[in-house]
Amino acid sequence: MKRGRMLRGRMTRGRRLRVAVPAVLVAALLVALAAVLLTGCTQERAPLPEGVLVVSQEQQASWIRNFNPLTTASAARWPTLSGIYEPLFIFNSITSEFVPWLAVGFEWRENNRVLRITTREGVRWSDGRPFTAGDVAFTFELMREFPALDRRGSWSFLDDVRLVNDNTVEFHFERLYVPGFGEIAAQQIVPEHIWKDVEDPVTFSNEEPVATGPFTEVRLFRNQVFELGRNPYYWQEGKPAVEALRMPALPSNDRANLALVFDEIDWAGNFVPAIDRVFVDRDPDAHAYWFPLTGSTIFLYANTKREPFDDVRVRKAVSLSIDRELLVDVALFRYSRPSDPTALCDAFASWRDPGAVAAGDWVSFDVDRANALLDEAGYAWGEDGFRVDGEGKRLDFEILTVSGWSDWVRAAQVITRGLADVGIEASVRTGDFGSWFQRVQEGNFDMSLGWSYEGPTPYTFYRWLMASDTVEPVGEIAPGNWHRYASPEADRVLEAFEGEADPEGQRELAAELQWAFVTEAPAIPLYPNPSWAEFNIGRFDGFPTAENPYADPSPNKFDRGECLLVLTNLVPRGQAADGSADDGSQAEEQ
Amino acid sequence: MTAKRPGTISGLSAWIDAVRHDKRAAVGAGIIVFFILLALFGPLLVGDPNDLVGVPLQPPSAQHLLGTTGQGQDVFAQLVVGTRTSLLIGFSVGLTVVLVGALIGVTAGYAGGRVDGLLSLLFNVFLVIPGLPLAIVIAAYLPSGPLTLGFVLVIAGWAWNARVLRAQTLALRNRDFVAASVVAGESGWRIVTAEILPNMTSLLVSQVIGGTVYAIGAQVGLEFLGLGDVSAVTWGTNLYWAQNDSALLTGAWWTFAPTGLCVALVGFGLTMLNSGFDEITNPRLRLERAWRAYLTARNQRPGRSTPVVAMGDDNV
Amino acid sequence: MRYILKRLGFYLLAGWVALTLNFFLPRLMPGDPATALFARFRGMLGPEALDALRETFGLTDAPLIMQYFTYLGHVLQGDLGISVAYFPSPVLDVIQGGLVWTVLLAGSALIISFVIGSLLGVAAAWWRFGRIDSLAPPLSALLGAFPYFWLAMVALYIFGFKFGWFPLGHAYSDAVTPGFNAAFIADVARHAVLPVGTVVIATIGGWLLTMRNTMVMVLGMDYVNLARAKGLSPSRVALRYAARNALIPSVTGFGMALGFVLGGSLLTEIVFSYPGQGYLLVQAVRSQDYALMQGIFLIITLAVLGANFIVDLVSLWLDPRIRETTS
Amino acid sequence: MSKSLLDIRDLCVDYITDTGPVRAIDHLDLIVERGEIIGVAGESGSGKTTLAKALMRILPAPAVISGGEIIFDGQDVCRMDDEELRRIRWREISMVFQSAMDALNPVISVGEQIADTLLAHSGGPAETPDELLTHSGGPAENPMMSVGDQFVDTMIAHDIGSNEWARCRAEELMTLVGIPTDRLDSYAHQLSGGMRQRVGIALALAMQPKVVILDEPTTALDVIVERQILERIRELQRSLGFAVIFITHDLARMLQVSDRVAIFYAARLAEVGPAAEMRTNPRHPYTAGLLRAFPSVKPGSVEPVSIKGQPASLRTPPTGCRFHPRCPRAIDICAKEQPGPTVIGPGHIAFCHLAEK
Fold this sequence. Notes:
Chain B has helices at about 10-20, 25-45, 75-110, 115-130, 130-140, 145-175, 175-185, 190-195, 200-225, 235-245, 245-250, 255-280, 285-295. By secondary structure, chain B is mostly helical. Chain B has 13 helices and no strands. In chain B, helix 7 (about 175-185) runs antiparallel to helix 8 (about 190-195) and helix 9 (about 200-225) packs parallel to helix 10 (about 235-245). Chain C is mainly α. Chain C has helices spanning about 1-30, 35-40, 45-55, 65-75, 90-125, 130-145, 150-160, 180-220, 220-230, 235-270, 275-285, 290-320, 320-325. Chain C is globular. By secondary structure, chain D is an alpha/beta fold. The interface between A and D is small, with 8 and 12 residues.
């Protein structure tokens, strides 16, 4: 009987439990649903905090805390290079000038074999310790010891770095290489007193950065958002006016654009389709953009190791077949214009040689001349409306682009149409970035769209288009010069350039390079890429605009620290000390 | 010995029956036939779907029935051509999944013993490993293209069929007529092909349909992630491009709405076909249907207790 | 008890298979992940830098079998390697942040759709030929045929973009402080409505149909007849006798559906930029971050296996017959 | 108002199929008296189980009752709505299903299933405790005596309708059918076939109904268990006084147990009469055939002789007397005319053209 009672109790409890559990579950569900619906309908979007600049540059699903400015293995966090750490000089690609930053001056010595840099005095690290030339020397020594940190390959031309005194450091070059200044100038400097104790700087995640930049204090770090507060010891008096940087994790261009349109972002560097309608018209007082043509130049690269693109006439004919006006219309919503014959983007506007521009008549749209050139090159019309080569083989090629890069894909389609008019059959082949990159680097393609490499001077640009030493055999990885073109003429000029420190001399050599380019047509320029920049001028004042082009407006120009120019110039509306304060407060109230 | 045994589910003829007698099956079949015709002949009627025919992101108009994409292609042309590729991959994957499932499931069910143990373990393991992530990971390593897509879809999807077909084989194996063949000393291969498989025809067809639903859905998903060949025109890549070209931001609903509707319609049609077939072949469901019709005709509604109808003119 | 051990053994085995797949997949596939990995650094880095990185990523030329055991050893210690895209963070650190959101999204969607779908299925079968029964199955078949992510896109477009009723993405707004406070929970709930809602809509039909069909079958069983004959109240017959039994196949299916729903919710995460594993996985694929990719796959698989085990325990509780057959 | 407990008049039951209704019970008239055991016999498909379930109106789809009346205690079951049906089910009329394995919910313990039944009819069984005592107040050797005492205990200890009360009642019922009370927490699959059937009986008796339908309760059991169970039923019936409708295809067994016997053939009643008379004086050739097919198990009995031919199809029933294609004595009229009732003796009726002779 005892056993019976025990069982009895168990059964009763069981009964109640089984009734209770579903009931509670259902109730909880209903409550949750109701709560959710209520909150969903009543809660408005919270306004952004005043003075906090919300930036979207990196597209990430979630943030991982890493503020290592030297690591090469992956891109450093955007603010690591544009707000936390600072370089010696910042190259301003709008004015084509080096702005002294952590350094105040430089001097070439010993026939341009030694570069002496004078560092700024009064700069302090964010922990209050003084910044000295020793930190510069240390940073470069660290890069020598850990090649994985040498992102710009400085030690491929450097021989030694010597500390002269607390504000002077000397760079001894292994060979004559004046363009190396650009690489040294752009190097972000890390504090010796912190980094000397780091066991492995390659994998160091540097969660609490100590740096010289305007925003060094990690106020908040979640996988969805992080914030950087002001550096209490920032060397520029009274700056930055922006209280903090906030970085929301936005996984895609599309998502970032949505956030931008809904005023969740103050500064972005995205491609926005039909920007006037989609973005500006929604709130003309706050939404603004400026797309200066200072991105890299987009080329159609023809593989010069393959027939018929080894023939300059064919390359020029291809170029002449392209309706670049239509191309920028269809591919880029008219955000750009056709490239000029020198292929230089507007960052190098002051370097352009009018003679070369005039001579490069093949960078235009002229089907008749294209046909004439192809006839001359010996490619006769075949029966099916396409040209054939000497062996009777039809001219048909693939144009590679990256899937998802719709501007490129559209551009390639426009090119295909133009080529068909001159008797060349081309098909667009899209692939994912990895496979595309592999193919172009190995030279395993007929034609492909691609970007160019830019440095502070046209030297870098033309070197990666024409220099013999950048040509790798087909099948081996070439970082640039994917079309594998070698110009002895360009080699000569480039070598001279490497030894020329005088700006006037550089200008003359750059003109010679432009002449070499327009004569030999190593690659087919399409259009200069816009430097994407959208901003909320309702919340912040001081973004670069066409009217006030003091720097490149795009957050994408972070690699060489250019964003620092903008960040230190921004002023939250309502706090502005100058005359714009009135408009600012009005905008604030809206 | 190949004649069908009494009491087993009949094969293809039951499907025709289903379509003829069940409203749902008829609707489903109608939808599927429409899309198959569209896939076969549609591409001949529209232009090159990759052609840039106009200004990007135009809303639907007489000239472009469903507007233009973010690249200025005709959405309608893309939809029609995408139908062909998507259905082709869908049906062939659906078929392959069942073939693989049948090979493994029937072998396991028929062979029994250790073979069964091993194969069952294999598909049970595959059943609990999440399919889509597996497909994504495999697809990431392979060059993108329809073959890769088909391959990963089969890898991620065969196990369910194997499991069902193994159970069915086991059931059939214990039937008298199969047991008799075993006693008569017929070869295992013959028993499987002549006795077991023919008696599973309708189940196999139903599985192919189910497999196709799975294949189309998963294919669209993978392609949406950009894991297919994004230069091919399929439903999945259409959606991928729509997303890529900021369909949401620009309000270009016409670039993604029609494609999604088509995917859903095909899936719906196939499901209806399957459930209509189930209704017809499942004797229980069929009788209940007749019963309900009988009651409705006599102004009675099915209730909880055995209904009582007035003695009418229907004396037996 | 023996049943539990047996299932546990099975999941351990399945886990091992997943691990092994994870290890051999990249090595069996054409193309060398190591090469792909370094393709993007080449030209920027000298050979020394490359070698240094190679070591950092733990890529060696040891025999495959040795690598395999090293790999197993590492995984057992929770070391899934180093992410390339988030270098130098360990894969586990990268995954950790997102796991809770994926579990929240997929888990709550699954439970809600299971509960509602099953209840509707019970109702459809109980009021057979009634309004629910004639409308719900085709409707849910139609809704279930829509791709999850497409529904997500449409929902986002209409309710997020056009009407602005719901946020456009993320798991919670930046303005709230994560923690156990009402504001945060309400915010998370608000952000979860659309993603969870679309997954629920897409999956509810499956549960409905499964439950309805089993329920229809169970309603024909003698024990339901007996229950009816006993004069039990209709709700008691429906729930305690019919639904309780009809639930068993659904619960068994729950485990299997888990992997499926998880896959679908990964896509939904991408549309809503929900900070779970989904976008991370796609990003890993796009940036060819194989270590991260494998890590995510492994974690997802383990999560599904774990959930399946829980489901097994639940069905053990639901169905006393299982307890007997194996003991 | 009829004095009989159950008066079935002109009952017709149809199964609806794609090709039209199939009649499973064709114009049946049958009376069940209070406290009697009536056996219903016939081959499979003759409509026995259909009758059992039709009486409670629990025949599932695709069945319909297409005519007739089932007068139970003066009320027509066919005119009752769901709620009225729910009230008479189990309190007045209960049933032991053919296979207890299928009839018991596999996921609820048998104790809970019994308790469920008790709680469904709040207020407990129709009888008050006093009546209960008189019911069980049989001979001194009757095992029910102690059970009756327990009933009282239960009533005193717990409120009627409480979980505890239900539990105690369940234990009593288990004791009643001879199952140890600790099996209450068992599930159906944990019990032996005999025990399951006893649980079924316990369930059927839970509400002290006026009539219990036993639908082939012993088919799946071996002879010894079968005997035990039948004896138990007989005992209980005597002590509790309920009527029993005992359905089986085993005529010999039935004749041992029943007071009266009804023989079904192909949806129709063939012959009905007192058990003793049916054994000695079967007037329908089918009854005679059944008797030969299931001879008594007593020693010295003859070898069983089965009835030749297949049972009649209900879909296309034979014309006239449905048994005529198999009937050894069939004459011309048998194929043409349906035989009417022929009264043989008191309560003995046969439906056969030859019965009068």
